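Annex B, item 7. Sequence and structure tokens for protein A, then protein B.
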Amino acid sequence: MLNSRCLIFLDVLQKIIFNTSSFCLNILLFYKTLFVENMKIHSDVVNKKRYSKLLLLVILISCISHSYAQNGVVIDSLIQKLKECSNDSVKVTYLNELSWLNRTNQPDIALKYANEAKSIAEKIGFKSGIATSLNRIGEIERSQGNYEQAIITFNNALQIEKEINNKYGIARACGQLTLLYTTVGQIEKAFVVGQTAIKLYKELNNLPALANAYDRQAVLYEYKAKFDSALNLVYSGLEIRKQLKDSANFIYSYMNLANLHLKLQNNANSLEFNSKAIELATKFNDQVNLSRAYTNISLVYYNLKQFHTAIDYNYRSIEIKQNLRQDKSIDTNYDNLGYCFYALGEYDKAIQFYTKSLDLKEKIGKKEGLSAVYTNLGNLFFSKKEYDKALFYYKKGLINAETNSNKLITLELYQNIYKSYSITGQLENAVSFNNKYIALRDSLDATYRNAMNLKDKYQEEQRKNQLLEKDNLINEIKLKKKNIMIMSLVGGMILLILLFFTLFRSYRLKQKTLLAEKNNKINEQKVTELLKDQELKSISAMMEGQEGERKRIAQDLHDRLGSMLSMVKLHFKSVEENIQALRENNILMYSKANNLLDEACDEVRKIANDLTSGILNKFGLIPALNNLKESIEATGQLKIEVLNFGFDESRLDYNIEINLYRIIQELISNILKHSKASEVSIQLLKKEKQLNIVVEDNGMGFDVNQAKIRKGMGLKNIESRVNSLNGEFNIDSGKGVGTTITIDIPLNSIK
């Protein structure tokens, strides 16, 4: 038997999607989107084939949605909301978020959004919006190498955040200034604002931001050669990220640990952490940090004397930076390439890259790393035995290193200057710098030992934590098993939500495209509708007349002819009392006449019942259909299934019932005459404001596009009846696949 339960399932699915439509848009739109458009989905009763195709479409589109570019969805949504928004404060919020989302891939567009947000915010006196837009502008300036201008921008943002007493805003601006002051070599200023950021993030309990602040401060301790303090901060940041399960940002901890171990000459540990950073950056497609990790790992391979591998990683980093339009950050790669070519004995290439680095740093005002470049140039000329030039660059590097408190470079320069003076015979100066070298080396050795002890202590704690994690793993697995069912249900809902969102967006785009065409057809449709209304009124009047005439004839047969026949029967009865007095041949004629009279009375009653649909009139539509089913099945030609949902003891309007009965009666007649079917399913689903009827057969089907077939099967009469009830009539059929008739009737006149 054909499956009819899909009708109920589809109705329930319609309610689920309708009730969750606003929620699904809130998930997919950005968290600052303030208004959600209410939507409604109309779901019609469909046959089993269409339902199967819809379910397959859900699975396919949902799988694709997992790989969909979510950032692009958010940007498109914000742009649309921005166009529709009339509130200036909300516009500022949207523009700042658009600037943030575009800052990496399209910095020029991001800068445009931020400046527009700043302009509107200044116009309406929205200080929080001004500060946020300044942060966006400063971030872009910093990424493009405009460090001095970025410092001015972030200081302006900091001043506004202090005026409105926004602790988070103050901490945010201080964090950015920490990076900038470090870059331009103002280490003490960087240290002060970095401490302020850490303090405020602790007060706010903002753990992700606190981890980032720890990383920035660790770099400053590294400059001061306080490796124990630097490692302590990096490990603290890593613990926070593990606690938050923020695996995407482990990369910052790994890169800082890699750099620290490189400075401590632990090449194996540095290579391990750099490899982890590259793995994470590749996994999350983080091109910015991938280029940084390539730069860092090139230094490890340089220390391992694998110079060609180091050169390859630098070129990879340069390619990424150029694609991201971060040309001003390539100076570090020039330094590393200079190291490698110097080690390979290719001095001219080394000088070329060192000079490029020096020019770029001086051009953009980046004092970070200047002392290292001077040191490298000094080493190069020392190798060429040009000791005066070597001393010139060593001394320039020393001035920069001491100014920025870079003790590691200072230590190296003390030793290099000592060697240069020794070779050139300036013994007094040589002794002086040798003493400075020894004193600084001893102080750094103590720091180094503390750092190693801290590293060992941390690793021991990690081993203990791993044992505890193993003990907790079993309990977690049990808990996960309990949650599998819930997660599956939630996942299914999310898939449906994603499908709905995708279909809704497609629907809206299609509607916009068709809007112009629809406007051109409005006048023609109005004329057509007027003609159709007139036709429907005529058909309705005709059918009402037919039903009235049927009822009148039935009443006359029952009341007039029926009563007359009954009187004749009574007269025959009176004659029957004297029947014995009649002759025998008259008795036979009397019996025949009496039998014919009984048959005439029965036939009158049957005609009256047929004309007025007696069972329908007395008991309603469903009993009448069941009676029709029994009558047809008694012939053995057809097996009929009558299913109804939502019908109670209340009756429909008689006009609706009689029309529906005649429609179904006509459809069954067509099936008997034309379809060669053996089974028919009649399904009636009554809702609050609508009645759905589906009649399905397993017959040979037909081509619904052939007008001759439609006219020959009497379907136009059925369509007329459906139209008179303001309903919809659809046919789904094909040769060899059976026929499905779907009728939707609005119930606006229930008794």
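Protein B:
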Amino acid sequence: MSEESKEINNTKGQGLLRSAGLIVIVILLSKIAGFLRDIFVAKYYGASLVSDAYFYAYQIPALAIVILGGMGGPFHSATVSVFSKLIKDFTIKPPKEVKKLFNTYETFSILIFGLIALVCFFFPQQVMNVIISQASPELSHLAAYHLKNMCLVIVIGALLGLYYGILVTYNKFLLPNIAPSMMSIGIILTLIFSNGDKTGFYLALGTTIGAFLQLLIQTPVVMKLGYTFKPAFDFFHNKNFNEILELLMPAFLSSTIGQIGIYVDIFFASGLLEGQWTAYGYANRIFQFPVGLMLSALLVPLFPLFSRLVAQKKYDEVRHYFNKGVGSLILAGTFMMVVIFVSRVDLISIALERGAFSHQATLMVADVLFFISLSIIPYMFRDSITRLYYSFNDSKTPFFIAIGSILLKFIFNSILTGPLGINGIALSTTFITIINGSLLAFLIRKKISIGYRAFLYQVSKILLCAFLTFVIGYFINLGLSSILADGFVLKIVKVLIVNLIALVCYICFAHILKVEYLEDLKDKITAKFKKGENNA
């Protein structure tokens, strides 16, 4: 690589680091809002029939607003992939054909998802009977009531995906990452005025209000960029819209297939004890707090770069940024796995154990969290490499792999749910994530060589650091538990001491073993300080 190329790479790397840093701060604030939302929901409803009914019903709106229309979803990904190639000058208003494409895309989204929302509004009981066929009549009726109250979220989700994609295409990363906090704010404010609600009506209402707020804060910025909505029905003769559909439909089906995997989980969970599905939901959100934060911070700025570099056939740079990015994610994510293994019971107790949320609920969530957290490394790798497929305009391969996972999910759940209950569903999810990530890693070689030997060597060193850190953290945690009383403040003190020591040990082990990604981070920080001193 020439000196000029190195300079370009350094400039891009610094830009990505700055973008990632800002996104981390914004997503952290959004995650904190989500954390506060969970505290409120747990306090008011605990792990109960009402919370189970809400979380079962929410799976359909979640398909639209989180999985399909959320950051990294197919609507967002297809928008970035196509619009980033069509727009040549981001400083001026979009040309007529680009605006027409936007309007065609938005009209299509409203029609398709509006139809689904109408079905959920008029036939909620029939929909829930299919999803939770093993549930009691009381649980099924309550879930149908929640679904009817949240059906508008389905339409909003598709629009959010399009708006997210447009904003990210214009390198406006912050607003799409701020917007999800509106959902949490809507739920919190609604619950404050719920006046002892026992049905979960205010929880469903807050979800709908929060989704509307997400859309509301982004619409003015999208309009300012030059994208105002005017119905357009050019579905069959617009070449660029056909390209979107070529990306969108397999990715849409792939995401839907992934959601079918969740419905398989619901099928098995609906026959378990009350509160177990709620415990699974809380464990998954705790898992997503650090993992989602890290993935979004890196992949939001990196995905448009992948698309542009692939279009320019600069495969060396694609490989460089992919390996560095995923390696850094795994370095951070593996430490988070150690923290969860060592301190999960205390962390959940500190966060949620109040009001209707009992210590028994804490232990249920902690058990599920353990099994889900085993998937941190394959989860990060799978989500990262999926973006690489999308950059090559290939959403079919992830789709076909996702189809195959449904049968495996059913088999694993059938085997594991009996002896392990809800923990069996969590372990089944981990197995599926490992299999999916492995298949994607193997098949990407037809498009680009990743250089797995060097990558896996670094990952093996990270895992050794994690194991040594876990052993130290486990015994320190055990020792402090026998000394300190079981109080709220003392739990916080214990968690801070244990994990601060664990972090120092992890960094020291990584330094001794010369983990490449730690050295890269150290070099960037050193260069930044030197630059600051020179400017001074």
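Comment on protein B: The chain has one domain: 3-450.
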